[in-house]
Amino acid sequence: MTYICRKPTNQSYKMNYSALNDETLLLTYRKEKTNTIMNAVLIGVSLGIVIFGAVKNGITFFTLFPLLFVYLLTRSSKNKKLLEAELKARNLSYK
């Protein structure tokens, strides 16, 4: 058996917002806004765990492991910028 594994490019993560209608675009923005708030909470908790672990046990691999989640959560914010640019291009009120 041969397995072909292809690494996804950054293009595969980007959503095509220009194909959505106005209502769906605004609904997607509301969901993205909720995700942003949840990401901020998770980043705060992760940083709190890192600081507590560093003070309590010193710096180890498991102390710094939550920083990986912080990196992944901040990477996901690129879609929000693309979404806001599409809303601005269509002159839709999103704030």
Offer a quick outline of the entry.
Helices cover 69% and strands 0% of the residues. With 95 residues, the chain is an all-alpha fold.
Task: Produce the secondary structure layout.
Elements: H1 10-13, H2 22-57, H3 61-64, H4 66-75, H5 78-89
Helix pairs in contact: 2-4, 2-5
Transmembrane segments: 36-52, 58-74
Protein name: FUSC family protein
Keywords: Membrane, Transmembrane, Transmembrane helix
Verbal overview:
The model is unreliable at 5-12 (pLDDT under 50). The chain has 95 residues and is mostly helical. It has one domain (20-89). Helices cover 69% and strands 0% of the residues. The termini are far apart. It has helices at residues 10-13, 22-57, 61-64, 66-75, 78-89. Helix 2 packs antiparallel against helix 4 (66-75) and helix 2 (22-57) packs antiparallel against helix 5. It contains five helices and no strands. The radius of gyration is 18 Å and the shape is elongated. The chain crosses the membrane at residues 36-52, 58-74. Keywords: Membrane, Transmembrane, Transmembrane helix. This is FUSC family protein. It comes from Rurimicrobium arvi.
